[in-house]
Amino acid sequence: MNTETTHVPEIVELPEQTAAVVRGRVPADQLPGFFDKAYAEVFTVLKEQGIGPVGPPFGRYLSMSDTVEVEAGVGTERAIEPSGEVQPVVLPGGRAARLVHEGPYERLGESWHELEAWITALGEKPGGAPYEEYVSEPDPATDPERLHTVIVWPLA
Fold first, then answer.
1. Sequence ranges of the domains in the chain
2. Residues 40-97: pLDDT tens digits?
């Protein structure tokens, strides 16, 4: 995964990326707990299989309604073997819109709306499952205003 970012929206060309994920369907208010558990499982499997992570952890949103269908994982050096709830996936390559969100996760919605409006203003169409790359690891000692999240939205 490419973590070079800009604080203004941009269109980038992304390569395909193997990844290890845990998929779930959870209420939005339970996403932090789901992510914590999923990332722990993913990193345990990577260690067991001797495979290194590539890039920051991500959350990829497959559908949104009363519950969110999401994959929580990390890019990998190569494909993993399925293990428990941890499954291999390939993040598709191609054109995508990207934006850096700085600040608390509670304000991510504002950045998503900004990116969507920017995509539409260019005459482009969102496509595929968008995802967030969590560049800054959330920690109680971290100032929420200093969190960096990269929003990636594949284009149709």
1. 1-15+92-156, 17-91
2. 999 999 999 999 999 999 999 999 888 999 999 999 999 999 999 999 999 999 999 9
Write out the two tokens for 70: 């999401």
Retrieve residue 10's tokens.
């941009």
Q: What is the CA radius of gyration of the chain?
A: 15
1-15+92-156: CATH homologous superfamily?
Answer: Regulatory factor, effector binding domain (3.20.80.10)
Strands 67-76 and 53-64, how do they pair?
antiparallel
DSSP character string of 35-89: HHHHHHHHHHHHHHHT--EEEEEEEEEEEESSEEEEEEEEEESSPPPPBTTEEEE
Q: What are the pLDDT digits (tens) for 112-127? A: 999 999 999 999 999 9
Q: Is 98 exposed, middle or buried (0-12, 13-18, 19+ CB in 10 A)?
A: buried
Q: Answer for the pair 137, 149: CB distance below 8 angstroms, yes or no.
A: no
Overall fold of domain 17-91: Multidrug-efflux Transporter 1 Regulator Bmrr; Chain A (3.20.80)
